[in-house]
Amino acid sequence: MDRFLFPKWVNTIVPVLGALGAIGALYVVGMVAFGASPETTDVGYQPEQPLPFSHKLHAGKLKLDCRYCHNTVEVAGHAAIPPTKTCLNCHSGADANGVVNTVSIHSTSSKLAPIRESQATGKSMQWRRVHDLPDYVYFNHSAHVRRGVSCVSCHGRVDKMDVVTQVKPLSMGWCLECHRHPEPNLRPPEFVTKLDWKAEGDPLEVGEQVRKELNLNPSSNCSTCHR
C-alpha cells in the first residue's frame, strides 16, 4: 500500500500556520492576563493620580453629590470623568488680568497647580481610572443607577476615602451574583447617590419592594455584558 504524500505546497503554509497558532496563543494569554490584572479584579487597587483629590472631603464633609462631577451616570453608559472646568467652578485661578476671584477656594494652592496648567494649556488632566473594566465587557451606568443600584454597591463608601480604592472584585461571578439576587443592592432610586443612606427596616425587604415596583428582572445571559 502506497503512503500518502502531502503536496509540496503544504511546506509553504506550515510556517504560516505555526505563526498564526503562536499569535493566537499569545492573544489568549494577553486577554486573560489583562482581564485578571489589578486594574480590573484586585480589591485594594489604588492608582496614583496627577494630583491629590479627597472624596472624603468633597463627597463626605462638603456633601457634594456624585453627579456634580460624574454628571452622565444617569443618562449614559459611562460615568464622566470631570473636566478641568468642573474643578475651576470652585477653584478658579486668576483671570487674564491676574485678578483672583475672592470667592474661589484655594485658588492659589500649589497642590492645584496641575489644574491651573490644564486650564492654561487646554490639555486634559490625565486622571487614572480606578474601576476600569476590560474592553470586552459592556457596562451601562445609567441602567443601574436609574434602577436603584447605589454607587456604594460597586464603589464602596467613597465619601470616607481620601484616596479612592477598589473595594469590589468586579469579576464576572460577582456581577452575576448581583443579577441573580439584586435585592441586597437595591434602594429607592432617589437615594442612589446618598452614600450614607440606611434602609428603614429590613434592607432585603426594601430591596424586594424596589424590585417589584420597578419590575426588575436582571438578565444573566452572556450577551448582556459580552456584546
TrEMBL record:
Keywords in alphabetical order: Membrane, Transmembrane, Transmembrane helix
One family name in Pfam for this protein: Cytochrome_C7
Domain Cytochrome c7-like: 53-99, 137-227
Residues that span the membrane, as ranges: 12-36
Listed name of the protein: Cytochrome c7-like domain-containing protein
Lineage of the organism: Bacteria, Pseudomonadati, Planctomycetota, Planctomycetia, Planctomycetales
